[in-house]
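Q: Entry one of two.
A:
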Amino acid sequence: MKHFLKSTDLKDCEVEKVFSLSQQFKKTRGEGGLSVLGNQSWGMIFFKTSTRTRISFRVGIQELGGHPVHINQDEIQLSRGESIEDTARVLSRYLHGLVIRCYEHTLLEQFASHGSIPVVNALSDFLHPCQVYSDAFTLLERWSDGKRFLDALKGRKIAFFGDAASNMANSWVLGGSLFGMEVALAGPGQYAPGPEIEAVLKSSGYAPTYTFHTDPMEAAENADVIYTYVWVSMCKENEASDRLDIMSPYQVNASIMARAKPEALFMHCLPAHPGFEVTQEVMDSRASIVFDQAENRLHTQKAILAMLAETNKH
């Protein structure tokens, strides 16, 4: 059974297919007639609040000819102590796939291990692979120019600012190695990448392409992309005051953008908090492509679902 729990779960040929399908789905959206999911029912369990992920998956499943089934975590027996193993087995009898947004990444792995349907990671505290694929596709819209998609990404530099141990930073550590991109992570020393992401990278068979910097200007040097993320993630609210103080040198502002390449792009997976991780000036600048990223979540996730549906037929 093929699942999508981390960026490196797909082979190079499958990555190319996802980007190709993303391009196709975006171009032909609204023309109708898609039956990629063939009347399938896909469950959506969200243990965390969501705007972009929830709506884009729900719309995407519908546009592929499937039926999204919203599963409220408080209304199923998991909330009363039923095991993940039993829940996964039962849901596999009803559904054709599961999209899960959760806290512990191990919950995703347990659903994938005990169920018999594909599981998609719609975000965990450890990884957010759908976002990285969407981000990469957003860049390819500007860079591919007829090239093989992975060739267009190879050698490009993305500089990530803030919590370099966050799920988005971890996702770019894996995505950078998969796409052949240089990833410069910039943040306080206590928020450096941890051994967990190193272990996943090693087990995936990819060489690391990232560096960690405590000097934000050093990280931004000659970057093709400047990327940031919220300083206080969900469930980190008790650390807010400490995080806001220690992260302030890593705010993306005009000085950071000036250190990157003249044509550098600014990315943020949203929601953003202007005045904290990024200035309003940068958010509103011509370099900012944050709403293209948000739109492309729909097209890229449709491509991931279509690829999984096709792969799991065999």
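Q: Entry two of two.
A:
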Amino acid sequence: MFLEHFKITGLAISQIFILAALGFFLVKKTLLSSAGLDALSRLVIQVIFPALIFTQMLQNFSFNLYPNWWIFPLISLAITALGLIVGVLLLKFLRLKTGRLQFLSLVGFQNSGYLPLALVAGIFSAQEANNIFIFIFLFLLGFDLVAWSVGVYMLTYEKKAQFRLKSIFSPPVVVNLATLTIIALGLNKFIPLSILKPVQMLGNATLPLAMLVVGGNIALVRLKDIDKKNVFFFLLGKLIILPALGIWVVLKLGLPQLIGFLIVMQLAMPSATSLSVIVRHYKREDALISQGIFFSHIISLFTIPLFLSLYLSLVVLK
């Protein structure tokens, strides 16, 4: 059973890797410039990904089907808190004079949107995938709130804080909230198919383009003077301890399989590539961030199928 699940999840990861590798290759060969990658990233974040959220939520979400929808933003906050706690405990084994907040950010903030969406699309049937898509969109409401406020603050090293409403209310968050409002008011019934269909076509381009962006961002990270001890403890916390804790908690609480899968999957994800974007934007030292993003994505090609297969096997056996 484990090998069967590992084969399925491994195949999904390999498909994602091919798309990300293409983005990596395009940037490394300068077929896609840094400015071009930034433009593509903005297009995905501000237009294409919101289009996917809008159409998926309208077609698959209702407050009757998901009465406990508010739980998912809280789950995202809990996962971030767990990551930061694990990071603090691991710092006790290290003697970092600088970069402590970078280390915590790498452990606490994961690739929570694009990679999970692509992974779910490759593993589950259409109906199950649509359900988990909704879970992920609701999850991102809480994650983006913390990542673009506390996360930015941690990486900028300044006490004059960077809690910017403009950053928190990014286009995906705004569209998510707006779509929930539309559904709550029953206005979704008045949206004509002639409008919904082209928006859906646009949203369908999210996954391949998003993975090109992820691969391109990884190509831009700078690797130099690698501190093997710091990287080892970071990878231990991010890719081993957190997903293992996730499996234990989910099984202990007896959560529904798909919700449990969401939690384990999010805890198994590599560090968010957006961390590199943040440090580039604020012109901060990014050596540890670059190393963490690069190595966590490479190692996760094995650890993600490992922990997801282990979880799915244990759920079936239970």
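A: Comment on entry two: Confidence is low (pLDDT under 50) at residues 159-163. The chain has one domain: 2-317.
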